[in-house]
């Protein structure tokens, strides 16, 4: 396993080495040192780059009597409970079926009306706040502006997510960024000890700086499924009824991925993009194999647009199988 990168002081959160995000570390460490934590933070950045883990680390640090900056002791009763996600004063609000609803926010506000059970500071983590419905967001505004004493609110959001400006204005925004391939590779090998270095490096590249996405690709076998799809698309002998049958079977397998289907489409987009870059002479190789030799640059761009349309249709809850069938016929043409 590669050595830990020396880009910053080693930070361990819940027994895991936390990589990268030096700007976030520096901003929060300075606030801890001066005793001037904001009442509400917005951790904003790409999916799967450590926002939730960092929030849990901050929760432990502000409640650990032996903490040094963001490094909590890890052995006191509070640290043990935070690491096990069992501390009564760590409140998690996560999307319910993809959406944070007003009922969840009302329940949170009720909880905040009581003092913390045992911690110096109750920490509330609201994940993926960009999924919050407008009425839920409006219900949260007063609490964000003036939270009850001894409560710290941390919101996380995808960098591309749409968030009400009134939410943003009431929080101190801490930016998070994609990690390097080396950092992502190290995290993958830390999380999955049996993973060989070659697989970890490939997944790190495909994850585009997001260890969370890369681990999802690995655990859900999405890379192998994508390779099967690409094999189908690059087999120019697969025509006629046999080819149509294979396309319909693949569309059915793709639709069965359900919530993971957008991630598979992201991998398909990467393959098309890399084929296009290779056609321009960049020599890109993500490890997916050969490109379609008979596609020209205009066709590559058309394929990318087809993937974009499929993602939008999935976002409108169109029939997954039908979306996949139409996409595959467009990609195979």
Describe what this molecule looks like in 3D:
- This protein is an alpha/beta fold and 333 residues long.
- It folds into two domains: 11-175, P-loop containing nucleotide triphosphate hydrolases (Rossmann fold, 3-Layer(aba) Sandwich), CATH 3.40.50.300; 220-332.
- Helix content is 51%, strand content 10%.
- The protein has helices spanning 22-34, 51-63, 77-83, 102-112, 134-145, 165-168, 181-191, 197-206, 211-219, 222-234, 240-255, 261-279, 297-315, 320-332, and strands spanning 11-13, 16-18, 40-45, 90-93, 122-126, 151-158, 172-175.
- Strands 4-5-6-3-7 form a five-stranded parallel sheet, sandwiched between helices.
- The model is unreliable at 1-7 and 280-284 (pLDDT under 50).
């Amino acid at each position: 396993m590669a050595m830990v990168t020396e880009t910053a002081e080693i930070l361990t959160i819940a027994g895991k080495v936390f990589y990268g995000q030096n700007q976030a570390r520096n901003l929060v460490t300075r606030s801890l040192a001066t005793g001037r934590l904001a009442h509400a933070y917005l951790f904003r950045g790409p999916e799967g780059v450590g926002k939730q883990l960092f929030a849990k680390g901050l929760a432990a640090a502000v409640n650990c009597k032996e903490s040094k900056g963001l490094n909590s002791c890890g052995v006191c009763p509070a640290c043990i409970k935070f690491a096990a996600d069992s501390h009564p004063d760590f409140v998690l609000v996560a999307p319910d079926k993809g959406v944070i609803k007003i009922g969840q926010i009302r329940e949170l506000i009720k909880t905040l009306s009581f003092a913390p059970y045992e911690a110096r500071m109750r920490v509330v983590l609201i994940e993926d706040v960009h999924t919050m419905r407008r009425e839920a967001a409006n219900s949260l505004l007063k609490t964000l502006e003036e939270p009850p004493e001894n409560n710290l609110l941390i919101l996380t959001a995808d960098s591309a997510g749409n968030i009400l400006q009134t939410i943003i204005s009431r929080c101190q925004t801490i930016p998070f960024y994609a990690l390097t391939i080396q950092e992502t590779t190290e995290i993958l090998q830390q999380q999955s000890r049996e993973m060989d270095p070659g697989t970890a490096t490939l997944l790190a590249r495909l994850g585009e700086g997001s260890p969370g996405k890369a681990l999802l690709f690995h655990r859900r076998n999405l890379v192998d499924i994508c390779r099967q799809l690409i094999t189908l698309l690059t087999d120019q002998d697969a025509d006629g009824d046999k080819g149509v049958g294979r396309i319909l079977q693949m569309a059915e397998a793709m639709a069965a991925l359900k919530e993971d289907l957008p991630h598979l489409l992201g991998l398909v987009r990467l393959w098309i993009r890399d084929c296009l870059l290779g056609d321009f002479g960049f020599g890109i190789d993500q490890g997916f194999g050969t490109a379609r030799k008979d596609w020209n640059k205009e066709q590559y761009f058309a394929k990318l647009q087809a993937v974009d349309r499929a993602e939008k249709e999935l976002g409108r809850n169109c029939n997954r199988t039908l979306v996949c069938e139409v996409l595959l016929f467009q990609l195979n043409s």
